[in-house]
Amino acid sequence: MRSLLDKSNPPVQYDFIRHVGTRTMETFALSEPVLLVLLSLAEQPRHGYSILKDVESMSAGRVLLSTGTLYGALQRLLNNHWIERVQEDDTPRDRRTYRLTSLGRRNLQMEIERMRHLAKVAALRLARKEA
Amino acid sequence: MAVTVYCWLLWLYPGSYRQEFGEEMASVFRRARSELPPALAARISFYRRELCGLLSGALRARLDRLFGPAIPFRRFDMQPQFRFPRSTVFLMLVIFAGTLLTIAKASSIAGDISGSVWPSLISVLILMLLTMCAAAAVVWGILHSLRRSGAHRLENVQSWMYSVESSGKR
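ok -> structure tokens follow
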């Protein structure tokens, strides 16, 4: 069964790449708040409060970010060039807008692919258990 | 009042962080607070969440500043490439200082050591080595039982080999 899974799902090699390959840490699992922040910015550029509300709405009120958590995540994403600030001259300093970079979008797609693969494996395992 | 306390708490963050995000954070907090529902439970939950987020964020920012982003916090470390961790430099300096202190201490008591002490010193060193090996084996055993030793990753090597083979056939 394992070999069958491996054949149908080559992305099993993720973990190996993460520790040995040259694209270090690009394929790791994101925490849920960070994933939701990225998903929020995937749709359109947003400012802090808008991200906060969008995350709450996307998770149906389950994930409520505090401003400390939100800006901690934004700072890390900015430092790693996953997101960037939208340069607008007339925007006040307390309403700066953020958007995904191409690197952030690519990494988000990889993460979604990883989750899709995991969900597929989980469904197969559960179906096998029930059978 | 709450906004004033929030602004005071922002001083827990490093200066550069505060300069970059402080104003924005206070503005978002102000807006989120103004849209709170009147229920007391919701208000308490909001303030508790904000306080915890602020304290943990400040601690994280301070640690990042001291040691660099090398210390892993949950699944949050996002380094796209290898960087030499600054924490390693700090630990190396601590070890170096410890070694220097030990040498200084040993040289001060060197005169008291006579030749007959050496056999017992060697046996003590061997005992220490064996103890350390035993401790390392115990720690490794615990890590292995928690699947944190890295040994289980060998399974992934097989799947990688398979994918290399299959891509070669293609």
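Residues 2-67 of chain B form one domain.
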